[in-house]
Amino acid sequence: MAEAGTNKKLVNRAQEVKQQSKERAIMAKAKELDMPYVNLMMTPINPDLVRTLSKEDAEQAGVALFLQTGKKLRIAVVDLDEKAQALIEKLRKSGYWVEVSLCSEESIGAAHKIYFTEKYKKEAELATVVKEEDLGSVAQEIAGLQELKSKIEEAQYNVGMNYIEVGAYKTNASDIHFQPEEKNVLVRFRIDGVLKPVFYIEKTTYEGLLKEIKYLSHLKLNITDIPQDGQYYFTINQRQINVRVSTLPTHYGEATVMRLLDIQKTTIPLEELGFEGVALKNMQEAATLTHGMVLVTGPTGSGKTTTLYTLLKSIDTKAKKVITLEDPIEYNLEGISQSQIDEDNDYNFAIGLRAVLRQNPDVIMIGEIRDLETAETAAQASLTGHLVLSTLHTNSAIESIPRLVNMGVKTFILAPAMDLIVAQRLVRKLCTNCAESKPLTDSEKLYLSKMLESIKGKGIEPPSMPTELKHPKGCEKCGESGYLGQIAISEVLRFDQKLRDLILENKPLAEIYDYVNKNSKMLTLHEDGVLKAVRGVTTLEEVDRVAK
Predict the structure, then answer these.
(1) CB atoms within 10 A of CB 218
(2) 491 touches 513 (CB < 8 A)
């Protein structure tokens, strides 16, 4: 037995030496032909590459795809014969940039063995339909995902991601977070603006899922030490869910955040978004303006894009030409020309806006005003017969004025250009299944009396002082949080001539605020939130949390 084992080792060693000699010969041949050389037996290969190059094509042409970065492919060949050249040309015509390396037959065989074995075949059917009757409560859906954890860890990477995507859809999550820690990776969903833990997965599983995410998002698989951004989409119930992907290197590995964008959620009327009274009237009239500037402000995740898209959809695109500049394009809109900003290729908002103006548009939507050049060009465009919609990062509507001035926009341009500024936040709505009423505390009575008094004369008849307010309790339907869904609280500032005069005269912000508070009928974020709390839509605690 010992002698047989020794003979086997000698045979294996002889084969090793023979293969090494062959690899050196292939390396020398590659040098002569001025081609890269690769040894696929020593190269890690992602089995998901079979999606780009099928088993049939690879075997017929005698080639192996061993690395893909977006549209860049690295392919190994034993010989550049007619079949191999035909396949490479086919890939190039499909938009791929192809680099060809020389390798041995054994290398090709090793690669095919990796991604053509049964283990890696992509034959599992992905879930694309979620029936309403199958939907459970948030708590039930998260519990269901926790039970799926073992399946996710054992499944093919695309199937594992499908489980997670469907789970996020069923819980109405806006984001999926993968957070690497020392031993495992925490998966969390952001539901109604608040992060909820779902489960921990092993790091090896996460590495496979991350490769799948990067593949779908056209990110570089071999880059792990710099942030990357990309996007892809999946389909549920014939609805396209766009996914914005962001990766970030951290101490324990790459953290990933996936923002889920459902086009159908942008078809919500302004009233259902949370606008009412004078604010609603001003928003509706803004969509009919022939020229001017409308800004929506607020932090990330405050619903600015949804509000802008709702305004865009209320515009008659058959009679008007609408062009958007976005970074990135979040939803595809019919009847509207959408242009994607590409900073890497020197296509920014300022350059894009100048190009858009040459397209003779009626309405322009700019994803965000980030610099003086964009702000000035947008303001000038609004003065020359265009309706301009955009976003800005400020805490309140009035603060947008000094923000633009500090950017460098001249007051004699800003004052006549501006028509409407909207500041908004998203608050969680009380779960109607479990909300409970409690008598007012003394501090709540004092606070409400002041707020209801300030609301008088602002276009909405304030309700009488309540004796009780609704509070969150928590049940299975809302995942024990007491809240289910979100609604906007907002302040909508409509410009009049007096306000424009104050800006032209460079009056201090305090004086502008005093005028707006006394004359504009604009509800502040807190005032709008208080009205919704009194009606039992949300709570004072929620309003205070988001409108600080």
Answers:
(1) 16
(2) no
Same domain? 56 vs 145: no
Q: For residue 11, is it within any domain?
A: no
CA–CA dist 132, 391 (Å, integer): 35
Buried b (16+ CB within 10 A) or exposed e, 407-421: bebebebbbbbbbbb
Using CA atoms, how far apart are residues 96 and 89, in angstroms rounded to an integer? 9
Q: Is residue 299 part of a domain?
A: yes
Instruction: Round to whole Å and give the CA distance between 70 and 128.
Output: 25
The whole-angstrom separation of Cα 536 and Cα 528 is 13
187: amino acid identity, one letter: V
**Is there a single domain that holds both residue 358 and residue 459?**
yes
The token duo for 90 is 């086919």
Query: Do 254 and 271 sit in the same domain of this protein?
Result: no
Q: Both 51 and 191 in a single domain?
A: no
- Residues 435, 472 contacting (CB under 8 angstroms): yes
Encode pLDDT of 339-382 as tens digits.
998 888 889 988 999 999 999 999 999 999 999 999 999 999 99
482 lies in some domain: yes
Domain interval for residue 235: 134-262
CA angle, 359 then 351 then 365, to 5° = 60
Region for residue 448 given its phi and psi (left: phi exceeds 0; alpha: psi -120 to 50; beta: otherwise): alpha
Do 258 and 272 belong to one domain? no
| pTM, rounded to two decimals | 0.72
CA atoms within 13 A of residue 26's CA, in its CB half-sphere: 23
In a domain, 128, yes or no: no
- Give the C-alpha separation, 460 to 401, whole Å: 26
Give, to the nearest 10 degrees, the angle between helix 157-170 and helix 203-217. Answer: 80
Q: Beta-carbon neighbour count of residue 126 at 10 Å?
A: 14
Mean confidence (pLDDT) of the chain: 87
**pLDDT tier for residue 125 given thresholds of 50, 70 and 90:** low
In this structure, what token pair is assigned to residue 18?
A: 């023979």
- Confidence label for 2 from pLDDT (cuts 50, 70 and 90): low
- pLDDT tops 60 at residue 133: no
Q: For position 148, which CATH number holds?
A: 3.30.450.90
Percent of the chain having pLDDT more than 90?
Answer: 52
Q: Say which CATH number the domain at 34 has.
A: 3.30.300.160
Q: Which of 233, 262, 291 is the last residue of a domain?
A: 262
Based on the structure, what is the number of domains in the chain?
3
Q: What is the pLDDT of residues 213-242, one digit of tens each?
A: 998 888 887 788 999 998 888 888 778 888
Query: 257 and 280 share a domain?
Result: no
Q: Show the DSSP H helices in 336-410 as ranges.
A: 349-357, 372-383, 400-407
